Amino acid sequence: MCASDRLHAECSIVTGGFGAITGLLLGRPSREPRLLLVHRLDERDPGNPAAGPPGSLLVTHPRAVPPESRGGRTLALAAPLTRVTNASLAPATNLHQTPLVRASRSMMAGLLNDLDHGGRRFGLGVDDVLLSLLRGIVLEHPDASRPAPPEATMAARLRAFVEARHTDSRLDVAQVARELGISRRQLHRHAPDGGVAAMLAERRLATARDLLAAHRALTVAEVAERSGFGTASRLRAQLARRAGGTPKTLRQAASG
């Protein structure tokens, strides 16, 4: 069993056996695939830095992890994969013990300790820090990313980009075109009916509905910011237009 899983936001930090944490964090129903950063802990003295770190992994498919790496106690951080990268990641990657990887171990342990013993509730900013940490680790380990298959099309790149970046409220059609390296006219040729703006709105709406249903402590303004709408008024307008409801009615429907 996992000892803790209390960072109730987009990211979760847990400790326990490898099978337990991967079953909990990668096996739970979700709209999005999840990425797991796993630090294996020294069973003899988990808190003794002199013992040396037994190893760290990035995992998207736990069955790809060699059996010899699945034993013992572990500390793990899970996050939605598309919030970290839009690249295709290998099922499992052994991480070099870079300063960033070592810092992630210490930070995760510290957060988990505070959650276990301090009774604190972290703000949404903790998610942003943890997601940035994971992005940095992915970037400094190029062997974690696999080249895109040759059959990947601009339409597929567009879908992956919107999936990965839709929660950025500053993202608009012009920026999507710039970052994909094509003109707005070319971009619209690869977009489905309704265009890129509609793609962004629909994906943001799906995220907002999930947040409204699963995180009732979040205010409407917080849901708007986290889903990419930016403001509560924009979220309410899109909910009325595309879902025919309000944040309150959607939450009531989800609880019923």
Characterization of the model:
Helix 8 (195-214) crosses helix 10 (232-243). The chain has a six-stranded antiparallel beta sheet with strand order 1-2-5-3-4-7. It is globular, with a radius of gyration of 20 Å. With 256 residues, the chain is an alpha+beta fold. It has helices at residues 18-25, 81-84, 99-117, 125-140, 154-165, 173-180, 184-190, 195-214, 220-227, 232-243, 247-255, and strands at 4-5, 12-17, 34-40, 56-59, 73-80, 88-89, 92-94, 145-146. Strand 1 (4-5) and strand 2 form a beta hairpin. Mean pLDDT is 79; it is low at 1-8 and 44-53.
Distance between the termini: 30 Å
| Overall geometric form | globular
Instruction: State Rg.
Output: 20 Å
Query: What's the helix-strand series?
Result: EEHEEEHEEHHEHHHHHHH
- Going by helix content, strand content and strand pairing, the class is alpha+beta
Average the pLDDT over all residues and give the rounded result: 79
Quote the beta fraction.
Answer: 5-15%
- Low-confidence stretches at least 5 residues in length (pLDDT < 50)? 1-8, 44-53
Count every helix, treating DSSP H or I runs of 4 or more residues as helices: 11
Number of extended strands: 8
* Major beta-sheet overview: 6 strands, antiparallel
Helix content: 40-55%
Strand order in the largest sheet: 1-2-5-3-4-7
